[in-house]
Amino acid sequence: MTYANNTVTLSTVRNKALLWLIAGYLILNYGFMQLRFPPNSLGVPIAELSILFFLLTIHYPSMAPRLSIVFPITLLVCWWVYILFRVLMGYPSFGLWAFRDATNVIESLFLIGGFIYAQQPENINKFFNWLPKILFIGCVYALTFPIGNIIQSISPKIVSGSGQMVSIIGTYTNSSLLLIWAAVLILILSSKEQKNIFKKYLLSIFLIGFALLLFQARTIYLQILAIFLIFFLYRRDLINKLFIGLILCLVFVSLLPIFDIAFSGRIGQTVSIDFLLKHFWAIFGISGEGVEQAAGGVSQRTGWWSSIYYRLIDNWYNLFLGLGYGFPLIDFHITGNVPVREPHNSYLSFIARSGLIGLAFFLWVHFLLLKIWHKTYKTCLKLKWEIGANRLIILLAYFVLVWVYAIGEDAFEKPYNAVPYYFLWGIVLRFSYHLKSGKIGPDKTLA
Predict the structure, then answer these.
(1) How far is residue 280's CA from residue 221's CA, in Å, rounded to a whole number?
(2) Residue, of 334 and 291, whose pLDDT is higher
(3) What secondary structure letter does DSSP report for 36?
């Protein structure tokens, strides 16, 4: 009995710790990522400490067979062992930086974290009750973006892995993604409600508009297009609502000069229809007044990518095993002479570091994850379980937003993306397991 009580207590502590960790990454993103122990440039990041904690507290004889029912564990183990092999090859020359450059794979262990968190069916219900609250806090935090400099000035500081002083609060690196995800959640969950449905609709459009107009990132245009695609595939009833909402945003922007209102966003450009059009075309390297730097960034990125490509095809070893871990992939430095380590494209980082073999593992794992998601979603539809289907779409929206983000940024190399991303995939796998076993569904009071 004592052992059982200790086990329950440990499981409860682990689950709460995982949720606090996910909340920290989703809300505070880059600043929270810098937390480490000890709190200096040589400290171990909080994500890796958390991995160690939950790996040491898992009851593998019960977890592994359940996971293997929905996903081939052998594939995951082979992927992790291969990456460890490549990291250890770089360790003698580059030390701990070899492990740091492999965080995009190391943090895939949070897939297990999500799976063990949701081992009790009621935890899935708790998670989806918890998520809107965290997104609400994250959105409130994102809305402070215009006064971010003030918040940074009073925020506690910490030394980053590169030796820089970083504000824990006041960074908004993925806050626009969170705003869009929250808007999707609101649209999906309120679509069948009658109470305050119009207010919730306006709130969702406001969140998307704020992300689009104030954060001024080209990735946002592509993410919004990706949300349209998700709705087209799985919730066509929401396409018109999203489209009308975007039209309302554009009407609002077009009326600003009439009322002599002007404001600028992240890159310092005054918000206008002309700016939005020029900024969108800057995705393709087409320059215009005020977006020269954004358009120039495209050629800079393609230069990095072509350089890596030629290094990869230089010989068969590089092509199949990759260039390795522990060193920057590009020759570029930011303020303070800090090297930029990744080429602002996570997919290229995967193949550059671990070659075609590593990329094959990544794609294979994700192909199977998507296959499981789709099968689980179809099962929900077959059972006429709308709540379950909607929850899966909400999770898919986050996955797709990160995939799009990874095209022009090192999304998977940042724990504030990778940790929640793989944790949520673990939720999907356990969701599938419980649905298979009949523990959740339309006829169940839990989840």
Answers:
(1) 7
(2) 334
(3) E
